[in-house]
Amino acid sequence: MVFYEPDRRDRELLPHDPFKAFIAPRPIGWVSTLGASGAVNLAPYSYFNAVCDTPPTVMFSSSGPKDSATFAREGGEFVWNMATWELREPMNLSSKELARGDSEFEFAGLETAPSRLVAPPRVAAAPVALECRVSQVVEVADGPNIVTFGQVVGVHVDESVIVDGRVDLTRIRPIARCGYRGDYTVVDSLFEMLRP
Fold first, then answer.
1. Paired strand residues for 42
2. How is 15-81 classified by DSSP, letter by letter?
3. Domain holding 90: CATH number?
4. Which is deepest, 36, 131, 145, 149, by most CB within 10 Å?
5. Which domain holds residue 66?
6. Measuring CA to CA, which residue among 171, 138, 133 is closest to residue 150?
7. Is 7 a member of any domain?
8. pLDDT by residue for the chain (196 residues), tens digit each?
9. Burial environment of residue 115 by CB neighbours within 10 A (0 to 12, 13 to 18, 19 or more)
């Protein structure tokens, strides 16, 4: 068993930091926001997750004041769009750093769809989207990271993925990050274990 402190790992044994590979798979925070100037932003975040269900709340972490974190703070709203196997290429394209004001939706060939309760648009092709109002912003100590929490106030779900009253993730095939530079996985099978 190898032990190391995060800033003192054996770089011959582990030349690439495995932290992101340990916490895997991670859902992708494909976040759309609207800036005070009217600029729309769309970006995937590796550090994203649900944090509680009452009230339903999600979070994404930005390494510094990137457009998504800045716009979410300015407007107080964001939309999480589910990234799927079919949308993997446009999702990846939307990660490109463009000049502020340039549209990631346009660059990635994606259509927008209006939200119902928040101003930022959503990805029209995403089978699930969560409209969120910012509930808290936390700047993590000893680093440039900004964590944005959002309470889910509206849910969009494609009816074709609902089977017997449940959302069938194997029909949606969401993708998730698994670490390092570009490792992903796709949900295409499930198993069930009931609590004892």
1. 32
2. SS--HHHHS-SEE-EEEEEE-TTS-EEEEEESSEEEEEETTEEEEEEEESS-HHHHHHHHHSEEEEE
3. 2.30.110.10
4. 131
5. 27-157
6. 133
7. no
8. 999 999 899 999 999 999 988 999 999 999 999 999 999 999 999 999 999 999 999 999 999 899 999 999 999 999 999 999 999 999 999 999 998 778 999 999 999 999 999 999 999 999 999 999 999 999 998 778 999 999 999 999 999 999 999 999 999 999 999 988 889 999 999 999 999 9
9. buried
- Dig out the tokens for 17 from the structure: 């930091």
- Assigned domain for 14 exists: no
Backbone angles phi, psi at 86, to 5 degrees: -65, -25
pTM: 0.94
Identify whether 47 is part of a domain: yes
- Look at residue 18 and tell me if it is in a domain: no
